[in-house]
Write a structure and sequence with these properties.
Layout (H helix, E strand, L loop, with lengths): L50 H4 L3 H12 L17 H21 L1 H14 L2 H12 L14 H4 L14 H23 L21 E10 L6 H6 L4 H4 L2 E10 L2 H7 L2 E7 L5 H7 L4 E3 L13 E3 H8 L8 H15 L5 E8 L1 H13 L9 E6 L7 H9 L3 E7 L16 H7 L2 H9 L9 E5 L13 H5 L1 H10 L16 H7 L5 H9 L5 H4 L11
Helix pairs in contact: 7-19, 11-12, 12-14
Length: 540
Amino acid sequence: MLVGSHSVNLFQARKPSFRNYTSPLNPLTRTPSSCSYSASAPTCFPIKSSSAAAAPSKTELTLANLNKLLPKSAPPQPPQLDPQPGIEDRKKKATTENKGKGFLEGLSLARLWPQVKAAAEDMSPRHLKTLRRLLSKTAEYSPRNNLGSRWREYHGSNNWAGLLDPLDENLRREVVRYGEFIQAAYQSFHNNPAMSVEETQMPRNVALPDRSYKVTKSLYATSAIGLPDWVDDVAPDLGWMTQRSSWIGYVAVCDDRQEIARMGRRDIVIALRGTSTCLEWAENMRAQLIQMPPAEEGGEEAQAKVECGFQSLYKTPGAHVPSLSQSVVEEIKRLKELYKGEELSITVTGHSLGAAIALLVGDELKTCAEDMPPVAVFSFGGPRVGNRGFANRMEAKNVKVLRIVNSQDLITRVPGIFVGEGVLEEKLKNSKIADMLDKKMPLAYSHVGTELRVDTKMSPYLKPNADVACCHDLEAYLHLVDGFLASNCPFRKNAKRSLVRLLQDQGSNVKKLYISKANNLSSLNLEREGLMAPCLPSPS
């Protein structure tokens, strides 16, 4: 189009400019005098102010929100020269290594790994299969091998040298078997704790774990302490708790020819239960030492002393029953005469209070008659009974004693002043300090015999912080003996003893992992399957 000269002033040419015009839609760059820009005609038009134009539009608000959300890129920084290249890289690498090292140290993998490994093994199918077997069987035992000519060795002729650490499998089976005789005494007493005059005339019916034995005599212990008559009037249903004489155990003899041939002799067992009545507890508290009647004039035996309460229960006769001492001696003499000419052995076994009285029984039986058969005592969780003179007296009479002790059991450290146990106690026993303690201290007690030490913490099923009752419980003792291999070995993986009774008596001390497993195993239904006869738990 041609433009006339008169119109030149209307279209003035603009000077060239490199000014960057921003978008008029961006609310952040708009000003009240914003310009509209057109690529074809960059002419500025003033925007008229009005109430509608003052309010931001929806488009402007949307763009403003997007601008806030979108990340803003930082301006590029010029490269900086490093006077010593590689130093920063080494610093970063060292920092990373230190952080990693600190993290690993914080994890303490050396401490956690055994626990993780044990947990993984506990959840393995093989372990669950073993647990199912232990929870569903009660009649599986370690093998009964033929003892034959070695029976004297297992009966303690050499003080069980070389058989305890590691534990011989035949001795383990014998120890558990004698412990089950005590369990039968507990169960029989709990089923019928009250004593009648008619009952004392004949042996009580005892469900023995070994049917090759038969009960020949019931034994009763009488307390020298009496309670007022009004106690029975206040609680007539609990008269057995305050009665002076109570059934405490039995005498049984092996009567099976096949078992006699396996053991190499006819075995006579005297089984004694632990504390169960109030008067028995009262006798336990009488901790002063009293003189024992000497077997011979002079010698160290004249210095033998035992606890007053234990001696009282052993020697005191009742209104309708003889003393425990008289009953035992008469029955053993009768059986010795009945089986005259046969190879005999006498095994006295007891738990807690029964373990203490078992030592008194063994001491008297060895010299009650001529040509007495070998006498051995298997005690579980037994307290101290007498002083060092009594221990020397037992050793002089050749009475063999095997004490099964749980390291966490407090009962094995009383009565008396606790000065040490194990190796320390043996050193003190043979030192001049022991003589001074015997003469100067009224509670200078000493243990008797050889020790087999087990520990609750070694069991994978029991809590390491199990309470005092669990550490002293007889079933817990048998569980620990059954799993014991050696003092420096873990719990035996092929242990045979069932966990059913342990769950019943000490369920609160079994690890929760095994409690939940036991509840989930379909094979565990104790009452329906009748795996364990219902009875009161051990009061100890």
